[in-house]
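Handoff note, outgoing to incoming analyst
You'll be picking up this chain. Sequence as last confirmed:
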Amino acid sequence: MYKLLIHQWKEKIRSPFWQKSIILNIVLGILGLYIMLNILAIGFYADKIIHSIYKDSDVVKVFTGLLFYYYAFDLVFRFLFQQLPTLSIQPYLTLPVKRSLLLHYPLLKTVPDFFNVVALLLILPFFIKVICATQTLLFCLTWIISVFSFIATNNFLNFSLKKYFSKRPLLILLLLVFVGSFLYLDIAKVISFSGFYSSALLYLANTPVLVILPVASAIFAYMLAYFLLKRNSYIEDTQSQQRSNSGSFLFLNRFGETGNLIRVEVKMILRNKRPKSLMYVSLLFLSYGFLFYRKENLDNYLILTFIGLVMTSMFAINYGQFMFSWESSFFDSYMSNKIENLTYLKSKYFFFSISSLLMFILTLPYALISYKISLINAALLLYNIGISSIVMMFFCTFNTSRIDLGKSQFMNYQGTGITQFLVIIPIMGFPVLVYLAFNYLGIPQYNYYALGIIGVTGIAFNKYLIQMVANQFVKRKYKMAVGFRQK
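Most recent structure output, in case you need it:
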């Protein structure tokens, strides 16, 4: 096991990416250290934060109940962002190395993972400062073993979830809905799952013999992940089960070359890790409406405008920031084929518009809270289709950074440059300026009518706007192609 760790470390530090990006790695290291220090501070001052929010409450009981939310979000974010460590076993197959060792290695390598470090920094300070100072030694040991056993369960369970859910988008959506339903029922105080969890864990901590239950759950999750890896560790079995699925989304071919390009775009998203994880995160953000669409905010048109803009364009804007970079690995093939620049850009425009429309449809249930939400979101949908799409395409012609589609979205800044930050200013800033203008006139509720009219105007003149972007694209495409070839 020690030699495997040494081999992996040498592979990492000798890679060309590490040598080329040493300054970026230093910057990201400083940023990561800053984030961890903030998490450590939250854990250290958690008792004071709880006292300020939950007055006259038992701090240990409240903190234990809040762990229910932590475990729920931890499981979801692990599934969406955690990169499972892999080991190229082919060079070791001819060496006297046991297969079981090669299978245990990726599981044990997840122990110092980022999510586990966050849990340690968040929970351990509270444990030392509050629980160790107020509870018995036996209670403290049972409590901390139980808490970190559940963290370990999430860690190893993620292997199994990724195996069965990663290629089944519907199951992923159902998982998010399932977790979201539990959280909503608890927040709405319909069923107090956090209270039940807090009582159960405290009872377990007061009955040390029951500590075997959370430990057993962690062991079970580990063994389940191990047997799944073992069952799927034969390359010939995996290859025999793979089937060609080139006929998917054939209905898009009815729309000619533009539809065929959209079809390629959709298949690229569903078949690659980074764009697919971005899609899942965008769907997850739809649940944020429950945090902002509250009674006290329904007359605050600035909040309604901002949240509506984010929710109807979450995927379109995040995906659109790398509109051409997603295709960096095969951008040259587009340039060498007989694909008109205008047709290529039209496919991008329609894909942006369709994805915004789908996000708007998913936000329609919020109209049950207030009809204002659907009206404002509809106006912002028109603004996104008519204006944001054109602005996004224009700015993206300045992208020259390559993107590896196989890497996860989490803590991945590959392809990110100044363009991604500048494009947000006009897209997000213009609706705010419109609101401020109407608010100055004393009629803030009319700002979304103005945004809707501006969006319709952009849609009406989209032919000329796309042609303008096409002229810019012709000037920039060769510089883009050169940048995309840099690995």
